[in-house]
Structure to design on (536 residues):
């Protein structure tokens, strides 16, 4: 009897929650193609936008996208300005102390060095490496022997290599790939790819267990039925790992 | 925008540019200049009013008011603008939600601060949890106006305070000799005459305010500088209009815009100063009297 009562209470609670359905606001950077970016029609698009909308669809949530600067993206989440971060954010220990992550929706993806054609690969060890601040790559460069040069936006790291301010840029390979492809041989990858981090996940407030479980459940569901892999293949063409 | 824009990759150069410059993102860029001007138009009078209140408080003989005025002016002038702009939206936003939380949800038993998280009940969220995007935009813009008005109000307060003290003592003595009270003398003699002393300082503050508007992006508002950076950056073939790094051209547009703004306001202040000097016992007033005679 007691058990029955508890189940009923839980069911009522669930129903109540479903009724008080709020808009889930998802924060993203909007400057990191093809993960998330603002296209020429002033719409935010990208792999994470498709994925986020699909997750919300399947979970029956109403979702809204919010553009926020990369450097303040975590503080604004914990302050409650939005509820989820989907911004190509690698799951790291340091970040997990402040926010919690869903299960990863991208496996550990390759990072690569990009430089002007003819650059000696030894710059990886002793040159100047451009990175976006507060990224996994920024941490790697800070711990390594090369000099790190940090920029607030990913776009500026590319410019730094073009104008000679930095010898190479270290970033996610799939972000760099379109620049290499478009440059007609001017920009090339140097050194080997490597796989830092343990994949990309959605960041959620530590107190928001319910939302994290919902997102994790749907992501797992999408991993199983193959729809997540389809999305990855659609948006990333250059050696992005799938599940 | 034009019919021929459906496939930009095959267009002639001039057609490509007409399409490129009329994309929705470019219209957002053009609109952002209006946002900047709207901010200036709203902030300037509010900051001036705050400055006037601050200056009056500093002149007050009632000591709590006097301390309040001095505290406001010295505290805010002493903190870097950028720190204040980071502080206001977070602290003020959370402060308002905290107060509202205690009104709306007195029975709430969980702590508001849970580790790193700031959690108030859903009724106390401002703007409301289901507020449409434009309400959030207006709220963010309002926060920006408050932050700017607070900072620039404190500078204006000090300038106005100085200008009030610069009105010759003899004028006030004369007013007192006519039997005016302190308040009457202030209203009829000090207030109308102080502006000529205040204008140079106020015009400085205005120019700094114009140049400080790029700080808007810190407050989550997509201003002209944000769009110049966003549009000017290199665009790969993921975009409909790929182009190399054009930031220098976009920043050139900003440069022209800000120079135009400061040039126009410099002229406006010049004329205002002429007008206010008329009949004043200052060097400029004396020059005008001689020229007319």
């Amino acid at each position: 009897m007691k058990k029955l009562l508890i189940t009923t209470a839980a069911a009522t609670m669930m129903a109540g929650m479903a009724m008080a359905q709020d808009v889930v606001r998802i924060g993203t950077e909007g400057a990191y193609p093809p993960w998330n970016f603002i296209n020429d029609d002033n719409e935010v698009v990208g792999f994470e936008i498709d994925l986020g909308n699909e997750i919300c669809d399947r979970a029956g949530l109403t979702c809204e996208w919010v553009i926020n600067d990369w450097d303040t993206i975590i503080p604004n989440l914990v302050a409650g300005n939005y509820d989820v971060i989907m911004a190509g954010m690698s799951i790291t220990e340091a970040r997990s102390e402040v926010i919690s992550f869903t299960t990863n929706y991208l496996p550990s993806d390759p990072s690569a060095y990009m430089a002007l054609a003819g650059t000696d690969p030894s710059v990886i060890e002793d040159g100047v490496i451009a990175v976006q601040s507060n990224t996994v790559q920024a941490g790697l460069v800070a711990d390594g022997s090369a000099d790190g040069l940090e920029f607030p936006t990913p776009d500026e790291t590319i410019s730094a290599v073009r104008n000679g301010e930095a010898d190479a840029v270290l970033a996610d390979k799939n972000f760099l790939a379109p620049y290499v492809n478009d440059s007609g041989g001017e920009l090339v990858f140097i050194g080997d790819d490597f796989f830092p981090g343990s994949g990309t996940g959605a960041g959620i407030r530590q107190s928001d267990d319910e939302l994290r479980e919902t997102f994790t459940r749907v992501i797992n569901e999408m991993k199983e039925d193959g729809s997540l892999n389809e999305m990855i293949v659609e948006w990333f063409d250059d050696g992005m790992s799938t599940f | 925008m034009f019919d021929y824009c459906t496939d930009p990759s095959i267009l002639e150069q001039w057609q490509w540019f007409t399409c490129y410059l009329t994309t929705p993102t470019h219209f957002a860029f053009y609109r952002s200049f209006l946002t900047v001007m709207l901010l200036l138009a709203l902030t300037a009078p509010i900051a001036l009013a705050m400055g006037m209140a601050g200056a009056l408080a500093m002149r007050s003989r009632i000591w709590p008011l006097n301390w309040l005025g001095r505290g406001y002016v010295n505290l805010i002038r002493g903190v870097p603008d950028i720190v204040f702009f980071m502080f206001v939206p977070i602290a003020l936003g959370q402060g308002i939600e905290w107060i509202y939380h205690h009104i709306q949800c007195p029975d709430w038993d969980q702590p508001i601060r849970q580790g790193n998280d700031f959690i108030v009940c859903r009724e106390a969220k401002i703007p409301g949890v289901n507020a449409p995007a434009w309400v959030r935009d207006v709220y963010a813009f309002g926060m920006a106006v408050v932050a700017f008005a607070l900072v620039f109000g404190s500078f204006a307060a000090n300038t106005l305070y100085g200008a009030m003290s610069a009105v010759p003592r003899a004028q006030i003595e004369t007013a007192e000799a006519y039997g005016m009270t302190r308040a009457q003398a202030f209203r009829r003699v000090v207030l109308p005459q102080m502006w000529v002393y205040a204008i140079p300082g106020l015009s400085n503050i205005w120019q700094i305010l114009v140049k400080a508007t790029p700080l808007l992006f810190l407050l989550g508002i997509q201003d002209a500088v944000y769009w110049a950076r966003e549009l000017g950056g290199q665009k790969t073939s993921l975009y409909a209009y790929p182009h190399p790094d054009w930031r220098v051209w976009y920043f050139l547009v900003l440069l022209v815009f800000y120079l135009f703004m400061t040039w126009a306001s410099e002229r406006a202040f010049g004329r205002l100063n002429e007008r206010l000097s008329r009949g004043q016992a200052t060097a400029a007033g004396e020059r005008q009297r001689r020229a007319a005679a």
